[in-house]
Structures are given as structure tokens and as C-alpha cells.
Protein: Carbon starvation protein A
Organism: Echinicola jeungdonensis
Amino acid sequence: MTLSVLLLLSGAILLGAYFIYGKYVFRKFKISNKNLPPSHALKDGVDYVPSRPIVVLGHHFASIAGAGPIVGPIIAITFGWVPAVIWILVGGIFFGAVHDLGSLVASMRNEGKSIGTIIQNNIGQKGKQLFMLFSFSTLILVIAVFADIIARTFINNSGVASASILFIGLAIIFGFINKAVAQKKTLFVIASVIGVVLMYYFVYLGMQIPFQLDYQIWLYILLAYAFVASVTPVSFLLQPRDYLNSFLLYGLIILAVAGVIWANPEIKMDSQVHVSTENLGYLFPVLFVTIACGAISGFHSLVASGTTSKQINKESDAKVVGFGGMLIESFLAIISVGAVIVISREEYLANLTSLGPVTMFSNGLGAMMSSLGISEGLAVSFVALTVSAFALTTLDTCTRLARFTFQEYFEGMNIPVGKGLSNNRYLSTGIVVLLSILLIKSGGFTTLWPIFGSANQLLAALALLTVAVWLIRKKVNASFVLIPMFFMFSVTLTSLGIFAWKNFQENSYVLSILASVLFALSVVLIVLAKRSLEQEEKAPDKLTV
């Protein structure tokens, strides 16, 4: 079997799913342009900003992608590439796309508020407080992890640092231009073309003017940038940067597919399924935790209900942004698998240890792109820069999301401190950045990433639980959400139980306790949701939706 067949077949399956299964899901959520989206109802020019669907898709896709659909699938190939591909396709269509669209629509029907507020409205105040604390902790974890990754990347490749700085400057200029031509489609298209061309030129220019600083300085610069991106209007920096950056990934996907079709490499890795491995453990539940982005990821619910829901211009735009954006990410995950299965399993295992997933992805995809006549060195650098650009996108989006979560937690508290924290975005963001710095000081990527993986998938299960309860209270058959929810809870609780016991045996008591707390949190929220639905059955006329 050739890699081109795998890519084309996967693309056809995902595209067909958008129009066939997607149509069913859209109908279940009763998406209608008669509903006034929060971007118009609560328009403030800072967070609530109605925007074109292509711009919102760019922001959303850039935010949810990051390095996740690259790193996770490549590591998961340890169990075999066949189960990895199956989970990406099945998970992306029936789990991730439903999860993302459900989180987005539920948020839009609740004034663009986060999943935590939706829990409050449908499960109760205690449920909201527990979920918001968990979400906030997860976001701080993400900020710390990605700030550490990006700072180290900038040290190792100063050209990537230079290109990233140029991208930020370009995004600010594009933001002003986009605002001026917002109602003029032709001028918007012209500005977009010029912006994308300049962005690709900056990829080359950045490599010619490397910019070097040490780790600590980069770390503080990155967090200062994240602070600014969080408090300024979304149309000033965050939205235009994500929109332009999305064309890096679109270009990467197009070049990857073209390179694969032209080179038409054979899949050299065997199709054997490995139920257990020495490094990762058992296929269940590890495969389903390792491949998060690309199949289903709880972080997506925070983006969908955090920044994206506040930018949707009309409700029908949620289809391509929420459901479509997830399927595009699934296709990127398939490309990630394809980048490494053109080598033998023995070579794959050796490279995974010596090079790491991102370098393997860059080298594999760069070699295929070179078949189009592009310099292999330039192609490899372009792929690496694209991955780094999206890691930076995740950083600034997470900082804004953490600010939203922090402010929503204190909303409604009748105490001066609570009112001050819920209304002051500068103070809230400052606390987010400070806590991120403290967490980075306590440990880097290798220490924080394992617990993040489990927390992220638990977040997905909790988001599905929230959407399911919301639908049930609206008298909608929620089986298409409940089935993925039960599966994700079985995956997450099993994974956390194994993780807690393993770290306890290795005397890593902090990680063991964290895993145990996450396990307990999920059980408590399940119980609260069950009680909420039982109360509704007893007194349905007293509840409003």
C-alpha cells in the first residue's frame, strides 16, 4: 500500500463525514441563523467581535492545532500505525467533531460563556466551581509547558525566533487594515493575499537574520507577549495572527499532500498491532490518551467556549468552524502518521528516542516536499517553523482563556475582591502570568507533560458530560454525545488510576496525588450531573432552559 492511497482515502472519509454525519449533528443541535450570536448581542470590540467565518476558522484552527496533532499520533505509532489511523478517523468524526461543535453551540446559547458557566446553569454552582478550578489549573499547565517549549526552540533555532517576531508585527498591521476594510470583501481578499505572501517571505527572511537571546529572557518576553495578547482587543493581535498563521498550516497540508502524491512512497512499516509496549504500557487506555488533538481533546472545548464563540458572526458559521475545524485537524494527524510510516519500525523506534516526534515529522515531510523541487533543507525548516508558530498561538490563546476562566469564577461573588477580579482583565491576566512563571520554575516539559495528557482527556469527558446534560434538559436525544462521553470517562479514569498507582510506587507522590484528585473530581461532577437530571425528572415544570 502506498502513502498516497492512505491520505486520499482518509481525506475522502473525513470530507464525506462532514456532509453526511455532520448534517445529522447540525440538526440535533438545531443550528439556526434566527438565533442572535453573542458577538452581536454583547459586542464590546475587545472579546465579543463578529468576524468573517474564514477569519474565525483561522483563529480556531490555529488555536486548537498547536503541536498536539503531530506529537501525539507519532508517539502512538508505537502500538502500530493501523490502530492510530483508525482512532484518528473514528475519534475525529464521532468524538472530537461532536465535542468541539457541542461546546461551541452550547457556549453561544449561553452568552459566549465557558463550559464552567454552562455547568452552573445546568448542573449547579458547585459543579461550576470544581470545573473552573480544574480548567484554570489545566490552562496554567498548558501555558507553562508551551512557554518552556517555545523558549527552548528559539534558543536552538534563532531563525524561527526572528520569523516569529516578524509574524507578530505583520499581524498587528493586518489587524488595523482588516478593521478598516471589514465591510469590503474585495479589499479584504487583497489584504489577505498580501499578508499571506509577506508571511511566507518572512519564513525565508527570518532564517537570514537570526535573533539570539538566552532562555530566561525569552521566557519573560514570551509571557509579556502573552499578557499583551490577552488584554488587547481580539482583533488587534490574537485574531489576525491566528488567521495569517492558519495559512502556514494550510500550505503545509497542501504541500504535504502534493509531495506524497508526486513521490508516492510505499508504507514500509509493518501493520502489526502491539497490545502493549515497554515504554507506554497497554494500548487501552494509553493510545486514546496519547492521541488527543487529532481525535478528541478537552482543550478544544476551552477554545470553542472561550474565544471562538464570541467571534461567530452567524450561528451557521459554527458548522465549518467547530465540526469542520476538527476534521481538518484529524487530516493533519493522518499526515503526521504518514510522515514516519515510510520507514521501518526498527528505524522508527530508534529515531523516536534520538530525534523526537517534531524532528521526525519535519524530516519526513520535508523529504516528501523536496520531490516537488523544493530544497529539502528549506522544506524541513518550513515544517519546523510551522510547528513552532502554532505552539506560540496556543500560548497566547491559553493566556486569554485562563483570564476568562479566572474572571468567570469570581462573577457573582458579593465581595469587593471578587468584583475586582471579575472586572479587571489586567489584574486577572497578571495573576495568570505570575502563576505560570511559578509553575515553570517548578519543572519543565518532561515533568509537566504526562499529567497534562491525562488532565486534557478528562476535560474532554467533562465537556461531553456538560453538553449531554444541556441537551437532555432541552429534551433532545443526546445518545450521540453520551456514547463518546462514557467511552472517554472509561479511558480517563483507567488512565488516571494506572498513572496514580505507578507514580506512587515510584515515590512520585505529588503526581500520584494530582492524578487521584483529578479522578475524584470527575466522579464528583458525574454525581452532581446525575442529581441534576434526577431533580428535573421529579419537578420538570420548575426548571427553565
